[in-house]
Amino acid sequence: MDNTNQKKALINSEIALFLRGLIIGKVLTLIVIGGLLWWLLKPNLLSRSSVNSSNQSLNTGPSTGSTFQTVADVPTASFNYGGSTAWASIRQLVDSQIQSDRPELQLRYLDPLNGSPGSSSGIRMLLDGQLDFAQSSRPLTDEEQAIAKERGFTLEQRQVGMDGIAVVVNPSLNVPGLTVDQLQQIYLGKITNWNQVGGPNLAITPLSQPPKDADTVIFPSNSDLKEQALSSNVQYVYSTTDAVRQLSKTPGGVYYASARSVVPQCSVKALPLGRTSGQLIRPYSEPMVSPEQCPRQRNQLNTQAIKNGSYPIIANLFVIIKQNKGREQRIGDAYTKLLLTDQGQRAIEQAGFVGVR
Q: What is the largest CA-CA distance in the chain?
């Protein structure tokens, strides 16, 4: 009897040991299989996690608004354009971005064959069929519209930005500033000495681009002023670069141009300008950077005064479009739309101007 019980106990022990080993084996097998599956699936899980994290980052980022990529009907071709020298930083910074984002569009800047580059010469080249659209720092004149009408089309001006017109002199000249009327009287020959406007006893040497090629204007567009009406003392220069070079060597010299172009220059000084002598507004942001600090630091445009209209002479930036229902009109419209996107307006402000949106 005892032998029988011992045998049963031994059998039961062996069965229990077998079952325990079987269970442990299955557990170990499941662990191994699970580990293999985890290892095989790990890259996909990490990749999916990375994608989800990236998407979450993109979704929570700020909205970029309209961009160069969102503009439809951008023609695929090469186009000629030109005009205002004040637009130089836009051509360098903004147009290069446009062509990078929209490689199907190729823009080629053309200088005039005769005369100096500027708004006037650019509009003239557009009228003559040498350009597909023009960039201007002044509005169209009645004469330019009349010429277009005679040639079977019209011209449209579309504003995309704002600039100021700054008056610059030799850094050594000590004068508090000028009113718009005083500036005009200087170029008409009615004011000829700086002592007439609170400065030293020094003859005024006014510099200007020829009116027919002018980039900016200080007389109203409806003015009857003609080229011969300017003072015989006015010395004509080819470009703003030439004017700045001459001013640095001419103690009594004065010149007006795009504020964006001349305010940052080291060798000239921008004057406050006002509608009245009691309301002189600086075209640069304070504090003024002295010539000794330049070019390590440069004066920056007083964009706030241009935005709020307190600065007395604003130069609006226009795209001049030939309305002829042809390729010129298509590219003029598309280029304007590109500049008026959120991306375009930010780029215009990065180029040193004031946006219109």
A: 144
